[in-house]
Design goal:
The protein is about 40% helix and about 20% strand. The chain has about 180 residues and is α/β, with parallel strands linked by helices. The chain has two domains: about 1-35, no CATH class; about 35-170, Response regulator (Rossmann fold). Helix 1 (about 15-25) links the parallel strand 1 (about 5) and strand 2 (about 30-35). Helix 2 crosses helix 6 and helix 3 (about 80-85) packs across helix 6 (about 150-170). The two termini are about 25 Å apart.
Amino acid sequence: MKFEIILQRISEPDTISMIISVLSRRGPEVIYMEKTKVLFVCVHNSARSQMAEAFLNNLAGERFIAESAGLEAGTLNPFSVEAMQKIGIDISMNDTKSVFDFLKQGKTYDYVITVCDKESAERCPYFPGEVKRLHWNFEDPSSFRGTNDEILEKTELVRAQIKEKIEQFIKEVRC
């Protein structure tokens, strides 16, 4: 019989050592896997970072734990919600969060990926530990103007760009 244990990141090294010790007594059939933690950051956590979080958790949740936050918490963008619902992903109940709250809570990540413009990304705080920082520049759906249909169409283009980048990230990152 083969047992597969997937543990989310535990911050206390002693706890990890204890768990591995206990599990290793069960024999070689026990496998220890740690998920890669990723934080997506944009300005208000209202669209781009929300979509990126949803895609990574949806496409590779067995390998990654994705969260999202903004430089400040905003209001969820209704066009982003609709664009994601059109492909079967519901983000309508998500809260918007502040990256600085995550930092105060002592959260740690393997990757912090900014999905806003370069100037805004430079305002993102540095998280402790060996964090890989990446920057993916996507247009901000909150800046789109036009009819509702035109705004939705532009948001769907950003959604497609984010999904493509997430798929590429999944292929490149080995957990």
